[in-house]
From TrEMBL:
Source species: Streptomyces cylindrosporus
Family affiliation: Belongs to the asp23 family.
Alphabetical list of InterPro entries matching this protein: Asp23
Record-given protein name: Asp23/Gls24 family envelope stress response protein
Pfam families on file: Asp23
């Protein structure tokens, strides 16, 4: 006659005997990393006009490295290079902090510039 184990004692074994590196791994999906990168870009572009589209991000994840490509719209006039550098730096820091992966590259593509009229300038035609 064979005995059948109920499995209760097996589930209650403490994990103290298993080294942390051997317990398994957590994998973060590429689209989750892309959403985090897009949200980080939005955090830096808070002063945009309401008709500006939200930044879109695509990523390539290879082991613990993420390459990010951002597509965004900016208000104009502004210092485009400085805005892109600020977004690039912030996205790299936030993705590294939240996901724990290295970000060696953040490519920023400005898809569209929105002309913001200067204060005191008349709209439409003037004579």
């Amino acid at each position: 006659m064979t005995s059948v184990s109920e499995g209760v004692g097996e589930l209650r074994r403490p994990l103290a005997g298993v080294a942390p590196g051997e317990r398994g791994a957590t994998r973060i999906a590429d689209r989750v990393v892309a959403k985090i990168a897009g949200q980080a870009a939005r955090e830096r572009l808070t002063d945009q006009s309401p008709d500006t589209a939200r930044p879109q991000a695509t990523v390539v994840v290879h082991h613990d490295t993420v390459h990010v490509r951002l597509h965004l719209e900016l208000d104009y006039p502004c210092d485009i290079g400085a805005r892109c550098a600020d977004v690039r730096r912030h996205v790299a820091l936030r993705v590294r902090a939240l996901v724990g992966m290295e970000v060696p590259e953040v490519a920023v593509h400005v898809e569209r510039l929105h002309l913001i009229p200067a204060h005191g300038v008349a709209h439409g035609r003037t004579r």
